Amino acid sequence: MTTRTDRPDFVMGNTRLRARWHTLLDGPARARLAGRDLPGLVAGLRGTAHGAFLGAVTGTGRDDRPAVLRAVEERRRTALRGVGQVYRERAGEVVAVLLARYDLADTLTLLRGAAHHLPEEDVLAALHGVGAVTPTAAREVVAEEPEAVVQRLTAARLPDPGTARALAGAWDRYLLHGDLPELETAVARAASARADGRLAELGRPAERLRRFLADERDAANLLSALRCRNAGRAPEALPERLLPPGQLSVGALVAVAAGGGPPPGLPAAWRGAVDRALATGRAAELAGELEEHRAQQALAGWRTGDPLGVDVPLGFTAAVEVEARELRRVVLLAEPGSGEPEGPAGPAATASARTPRAGVPA
């Protein structure tokens, strides 16, 4: 493999993202919105970048809470699409790998939706649609039968040609065993290998992103080990469900699945969350805490990392995700408006509007 030595030029794209930073709601701004009732929250969002997505919503109608959640989600998607639009040439290649995490998540969502025969519109609503799997492309792929989704993805060479080829091969095995997690893992492994290969070719300027993606895979693998442990499954079968490891070795993860303690190589910032999860078995809580740790790491890169490198798009992407995640929580907790019913038609009914995590199989 040849490593390229010419440095990607992030300057123009980074300058544009820095100019957009003020459109994001920081912690104090989100805190000022928290505690308002739904009409007050809508009024507060009108003067932000979210206002363009609110339409005629007032916060007093029966369906306004889901509409506000959709506005938050569409603002998130629009901001993320903008990241890919401001970089060119080699810098654009690096950022494309960053956004390919969302393409993988969308590919898995399309497969899961078809495997469970979910309505096409529900599947489309759950997609990110910010990279190669655009909303238009997804609409041409989505189906309620998994074989149709696989055929359409491979014909369109989505999410990328290499992963599409791996999907076609994994589908033959799925027909024999009907093992959806095995199919998902094969697709995720192919996408991860492609990302690592591209970043290796791009060399040192992409190293920060390479480490971030390796940490993301380590987090996914650790969660797989904890779920294996919780379910009492044979630890020896775990390697078949793991993504290419970063700092956490396959052997160390198998030991976790077998009932062992925290694995060697665990980042210090993860230790408290992992200790709690191993004691309680609460994988969902661990997933949220590790996601937050990785987001804060990326945001630290925005503040103190290389201003001429990949730290800027990585940090901006993390900031967009944090903003959306916190705003969803604020919307779900807001007191109802006068026209919104209490109980299931309120916050509880919209909990499913949360966006699936990018990059790794569940």
Describe this entry's structure for a reader.
The chain has 15 helices and no strands. By secondary structure, the protein is mainly alpha-helical. The protein has a domain at 206-304. The chain is globular and about 55 Å long. Helix 5 (89-115) packs antiparallel against helix 10 (180-202).
The poorly predicted ranges are 344-362
Number of helices, where a helix is a run of at least 4 consecutive DSSP H or I residues:
15
Q: Tell me the radius of gyration.
A: 21 Å
Q: In percent terms, what proportion of residues is strand? A: under 5%
Q: pLDDT average, as an integer?
A: 92
Roughly how many Å apart are the termini? 32 Å
Number of strands: 0
Structural class: mainly alpha
Which overall shape is indicated by the principal axes computed on the Cα atoms? globular
* Helix fraction bin: 55-70%
Tell me the series of helices and strands, N- to C-terminal: HHHHHHHHHHHHHHH
The biggest beta sheet, please? none
